[in-house]
């Protein structure tokens, strides 16, 4: 699973435009997702990016929201965001995997609170599926630091995601009907806790042009990695983007 982190495109708990009254930006963002699904092709994607933040409402690529509190230390907001997780049987190389149902991405909505301290930014979030795709819930607790080495700023990050049983079963479970069609054992995972590590790098190419890169590794708990449709212990994503601020 992947959770959003705010910044220019798809990254960063500590936003670039924190000190600005309003920020408008545009560019392109891309992702490589190395899913843990068995015999599954790496998923590459690239989309245009649009960002706007006036400290009351914001648009950040595939996320948008409204702030209830937004000052130098605290950020409390309601948000909608795109959960970029899917399974397309046509992308599987193994015949048995191609007999499984498609798992779709969805739009999530919820609340997020972040507190900036002397030792980094601490963030808590909870969101639910808005499109009745899985009817699941994701909750996140995370920390991000900041290391400045101009023109590059590094953001080390660590966190833990909680997936409700409905969400875990939708993306990693195998129903009895799918089992009969594919020959894979049925699987009904419980709710799951998945720790993750990430590091984001923001390179200020010019005062207005930023390039960012963020690899992230999510460690799958046993209830997910023991699924017959999984053959890896981690989900790895690499996000990048080129963003121009106006």
UniProtKB/TrEMBL annotation:
One of its GO terms (cellular component) is cell outer membrane. This is MltA-interacting protein. It comes from Atlantibacter hermannii NBRC 105704. It is found in: Cell outer membrane. Residues 1-21 form the signal peptide. Keywords: Cell outer membrane, Membrane, Signal. The gene is mipA. It holds the Pfam family MipA. Belongs to the MipA/OmpV family.
């Amino acid at each position: 699973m992947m959770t959003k982190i705010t910044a220019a495109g798809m990254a960063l708990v500590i936003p670039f435009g924190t000190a600005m009254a309003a920020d408008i930006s545009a560019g392109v963002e891309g992702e490589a997702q190395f899913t843990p699904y068995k015999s599954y092709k790496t998923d590459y994607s690239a989309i245009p990016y649009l960002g706007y933040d006036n400290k009351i409402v914001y648009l950040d690529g595939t996320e948008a929201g409204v702030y209830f509190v937004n000052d130098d230390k605290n950020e409390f907001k309601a948000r909608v965001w795109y959960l970029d997780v899917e399974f397309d049987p046509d992308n599987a190389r193994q015949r048995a995997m191609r007999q499984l149902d498609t798992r779709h991405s969805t739009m999530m909505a919820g609340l997020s609170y972040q507190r900036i301290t002397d030792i980094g930014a601490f963030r808590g979030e909870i969101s639910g599926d808005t499109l009745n795709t899985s009817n699941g819930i994701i909750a996140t607790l995370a920390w991000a630091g900041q290391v400045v080495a101009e023109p590059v700023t590094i953001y080390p990050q660590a966190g833990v995601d909680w997936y409700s049983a409905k969400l875990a079963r939708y993306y990693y479970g195998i129903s009895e009907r799918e089992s009969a069609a594919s020959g894979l054992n049925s699987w009904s995972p419980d709710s799951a806790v998945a720790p993750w590590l990430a590091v984001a790098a923001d390179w200020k190419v010019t005062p207005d042009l930023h390039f960012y890169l963020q690899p992230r590794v999510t460690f799958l708990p046993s209830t997910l990695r023991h699924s017959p449709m999984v053959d890896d212990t981690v989900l790895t994503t690499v996000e990048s983007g080129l963003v121009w601020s106006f």
